[in-house]
Amino acid sequence: MEQFISIIFKAEEETTAMIVAMLMAGGFEGVEETDDQTVISISESAYDDAAVHAVFKQFGVEYSRRTIPQQNWNAQWESSFEPVKVGQFAAIRAAFHGPVPDVAHEIVITPKMSFGTGHHATTFLMIQEMSTIDFAGKTVTDFGTGTGVLAILAEKLGASKVLAIDNDDWSINNARENIETNSCKRIQLEKAEVMLPNKVDIILANINLNVIVANLINLK
User: Fold this and answer.
1) How far apart are CA 106 and CA 207, in angstroms?
2) All domains of the chain, ordered by start, with CATH?
3) Which of 135, 132, 204, 130 lies closest to 163 in space, CA to CA?
4) DSSP per residue over 99-113, as a string?
5) What's the pTM?
6) S-S: 139 plus which of 2, 74, 97, 200, CB 3.0-4.6 Å?
7) In the chain, which residues have pLDDT < 50?
């Protein structure tokens, strides 16, 4: 089972955002942010030590590195998972949490190491933006679905059909489990390396910028 590399650092909020964006463009995901530090991870096979060093040198920020077996990482991820509330619009929680009061939409997930539990800033911002969009009767593609959270929310908001795509087996299995947990009936889950040519009304792409750029021809 493949191990993961975690990078741990502390910086000002704006600097942290830029570092995270640059690391994610290089394939990092699974960000955990607390008041004390930021932890961002990548599979050991995809880790580029020189590239990471260059990013932190650019900002003059110190960092540490640790290697974590996937099994132990997943257990830690699950045990530390806390509900996420996006205003009164939506909440994401695990089945072992009680219902979150005073939200319009609640999503129950099994927290795995897939990207997209709501804890990362981009997922949180995507959910905020979705609150301003009319999904009723619309067709949707969720490109890089991760946990399936955005696809699930799109169906809850009235989308007529949702195509959820990811290239990672772990994410596909986790998304399938979460889709079933939330009793979704209009989500089609597909494993794919690239964006499938498919004209839709709304595209949700909470994924690395370089992947979006590589798929611009199919984003329509």
Assistant:
1) 23
2) 3-77 (3.30.70.600), 81-218 (3.40.50.150)
3) 204
4) PPSS-SEEEEE---S
5) 0.67
6) 200
7) 114, 116
